[in-house]
């Protein structure tokens, strides 16, 4: 999920995720899984929307400048 910098902090990501969850549910999905960079705004967003944190995988991916970053895995039952 990506919201343009100029449009952040207006609830757009929350609305996008709520719509994605509604559509997944309408298609019969019952459990969703995602991961996101540990410590970023998205982590708070998913917790606020009721996603359950599984744990952190250290040094899972790389930032564009080559530094390693950890990822946090979440799940949610619909
Ligand atoms: C993470 C991301 C998608 C959030 O998008 P967003 O549209 O800003 O998200 P929201 O507006 O729903 O919520 C963000 C914050 O704004 C706050 N907010 C929402 N509506 C608000 C409003 N009307 N006024 C003030 N603040 C508001 C929320 O409470 C939340 O606060 P927090 O940062 O303390 O948690 C965006 O920052 C992004 O694109 N980041 C880069 C890519 C990324 O990390 N994607 C996730 C990978 S899985």
Describe the structure.
- The protein has two helices and three strands.
- With 78 residues, the chain is an alpha+beta fold.
- The protein has a three-stranded antiparallel β-sheet, with helices on one face.
- The model has no long low-confidence stretch (mean pLDDT 97).
- Residues 1-3, 8-14, 36-37, 40-42, 44-45 line the site of coenzyme A.
Q: Provide the succession of SSEs.
A: HEHEE
Query: Which strand order does the major sheet show?
Result: 1-3-2
User: CATH homologous superfamily - what is it?
Assistant: Gcn5-related N-acetyltransferase (GNAT)
CA distance, first residue to last residue: 19 Å
What do we call the CATH topology? Aminopeptidase
Helix content: 25-40%
Quickly give the CATH architecture. Answer: 3-Layer(aba) Sandwich
- The best one-word shape is globular
How many discrete domains? 1
The tally of beta strands, per DSSP, is 3
What structural category characterises the helix and strand content? alpha+beta
Instruction: Give a quick account of the main beta sheet: strands, pairing sense, barrel closure.
Output: 3 strands, antiparallel
* Low-confidence parts: none
Radius of gyration based on Cα positions: 14 Å
The average pLDDT is 97
* Bound ligands: coenzyme A
Strand content: 35-45%
């Amino acid at each position: 999920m990506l919201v343009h910098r100029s449009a952040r902090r207006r609830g757009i990501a929350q609305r996008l995720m709520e719509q994605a969850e509604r559509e997944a549910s309408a298609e019969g999905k019952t459990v969703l899984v995602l991961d996101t960079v540990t410590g970023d705004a998205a982590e708070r967003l998913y917790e606020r929307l009721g996603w359950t944190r599984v744990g952190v995988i250290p040094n899972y991916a790389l930032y564009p400048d080559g530094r390693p970053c950890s990822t946090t895995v979440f799940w949610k039952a619909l």
